[in-house]
Amino acid sequence: MSKFNNKKIIPRYSFIAILMTIAGVAVIIKATYIMTVKHDYWMDVAKQKKFDSISVAPARGNILSDKGELMASTLPEYKMYMDFMVGGKEKDSLWNAKLDSICMGLHQIFPEKSETEFREHLEEGHKEMKRHWPIWPLRVDYNTFTKVRKLPIFNLSTLKGGFHYEENNARRQPFGSLAKRTIGDMYGAKDSAQYGLELSFDSILRGRSGLTHKRKVMNHFLNIVDTPPTDGDDIVTTINVQMQDIAEKATAEELELINGDVGVAIVMEVATGDVKAIVNLEKCGDGKYRERKNHAVSDLLEPGSVFKTASVMVALDDGVVDTTYKVNTGNGQMKMHGSMMNDHNRASGGYGTITLGRALQVSSNIGISYAIDEHYKNNPSRFTDGLHRIGIDEDFKIPIKGASPARIKHPSDKVNGQSVWYQTTLPWMSIGYESQVPPISTLAFYNAIANNGKMMRPRFVKKIVREGEVIKEYPPVVERAQICKPTTLKKVQKLLEQVVTHGTGKKARSESFAIAGKTGTAQISKGRGGYKSGAMRYLVSFAGYFPADNPRYSCIVCLQKTGLPASGGTMSGWVFHNIAEGIMAHSLNVDASSARDTVGMLQPIIQPGHLKATNLVLGHLGFQTRQKWDSQVLMSEQDWGSVGFNNGEYLLHKQDITNDNIMPDVLGMGIRDAMYLLESKGLRVQVTGRGKIVSQSPYAGTKINKGETCSLKLQL
């Protein structure tokens, strides 16, 4: 017999089951009602209580100079708003009482807008009870934000006063426009990089965003971090702030003086290839010069006569000519394959017969182009292969958008099946036309000459730093261990020094240290219009290095201008001079204790001459000398020779100057030495002026006859 009374218990369970079923059905009906009819209402409520998966922007990394100075940094900026719905009647009465003080304070912070204008603007938002009414239309920095935050009502909590804000990261450059096109910039509203290193290293600088969500608890929103953001890393560039400032000022001054269109200047450290300064100034519509394009790495223009050094190097390296190879340049005009080749001094009668070395010194188009055409016209590929061998068209993989390697024609090149190589291509290419070379490539070539033939890749970034710790380095990269034979290099180095001392680059010369380089002046082609459509535009350049006897820096200056006069030596050479002297002066040791240190003394440039007089002068200057002949044989007044330098002492070499019938180079000499040398060869000497010899006729390297007259021009 069951001990449970089923008749009593079953009805009870049935009743409970029915109640639970009814409740369950009610829950389902209610849930369905909420999910359908009330869906939008409850979604709005949810939005006010919680915010999920909110992206948290990381702090962008800094861009630093070579010394660690900030060149680009991220700073907070604020957009300020008022919520007129919060605070109730208490806030409204306070608002009416403090509105005058608020408007007065805003006017003092933002004087562009009057108190009346601020009142009208704020009253409009208050009348419409706006919840997100902008106090000021633009973003403001932290200092300005704190000033606004101290004003009446704005200093209350958000729930009481209604003042709230949006914080954004803004990119700032403490040195203003210094190297702006290379450092780069950001689209502020989009928080994306525009150009320069900002764009090239964007993934490193940007960092990674984090995720957070908000929950409303006790009328306060709490931020709950899901994934913390990873701030961007810093990059350390090779740019030197002082050198950049020197280069920009020197370039801007000359552009204003000559009414130039574009000015480019690059300074590179010889040993590493580090770009210490890079200037890209361009004339804008208001007549001011600003950086709008990175011309230094992207301008594919015909370089002009600075290219002649590459042509001479190829010819010397191939052994087809030497620096004493003679070219008859005539009266400064010569027809080559039906087109006229002109020298810059054709109006004064040209250079006549000169050596190849002299042709480079005075930048003779005929001298260089004739020598190249004569020895390569039957095999032009050998010349273009030589240009490739010395690295003038090397792709340096510059980390700046828009950068391009040089474009050098090859005899096999074709466009639409038609050859683009003509009989005139070779001679015109040899003097800097028919090729497109950006300034950075030209400078890298001259930097290799200064670096004893080692070509370095231009370096813009040295390392990546995270919280003070180096996480990646970009060491100097050697593109070519040797661009030419050592014997070729020595000849080219000497010629480049002579360009400055005896040639077209005298404006670049410094009285304090030796400079080597090459001038260039080229007409800028206007596409299909060629070189003769409208006002002629010119590219004037100077590329070289300093100090020539122990190169530390190489530099190129390229100026574009419309109309004459246009001179690479006079205009760009002077900018080079100012940059070089500014940089060297900045790096001088001003400690008086080192003033008489012979190690720190500048090595004098010594021309061949009377050895006894030379020995006497060097002795008075505190230099050690040693004669390279039998020490028992004393120096006489008639001993003539040259001076070398080795292991801290000057070596005196005797020379017999009477055995050949070749005109010596007396440029830069004093009249005493020049008279002795020329008369010992049986020449008569005619002198005008006073000082040092600046020109001679006949030119050095030409054949002479006894009794012939040599004209010398002297100048202080």
The value of Rg in angstroms is 38 Å
Number of helical segments with 4 or more residues: 21
Shape: elongated
Task: Give the N-terminus to C-terminus distance in angstroms.
Answer: 142 Å
The major β-sheet equals: 7 strands, mixed
Mean pLDDT: 84
Structural class call reads: alpha+beta
Classify the beta-strand content into a percent band: 25-35%
Helix content: 25-40%
Number of strands: 35
Could you list the spans in which at least 5 consecutive residues all have pLDDT below 50?
589-601
A few lines on this structure:
The protein is of the alpha+beta class and 716 residues long.
Write up what this structure looks like.
With 716 residues, the protein is of the alpha+beta class. 33% of the residues lie in helices and 26% in strands. The protein is built from 21 helices and 35 strands. Strands 2, 3, 4, 5, 10, 23 and 24 form a 7-stranded mixed beta sheet that branches. The protein has a 6-stranded antiparallel beta sheet with strand order 13-12-11-28-27-26, sandwiched between helices. Strands 29-31-32-30 form a 4-stranded mixed beta sheet. Helix 3 packs antiparallel against helix 4 (115-127), helix 10 runs antiparallel to helix 19 and helix 12 packs antiparallel against helix 18. The radius of gyration is 38 Å and the shape is elongated.
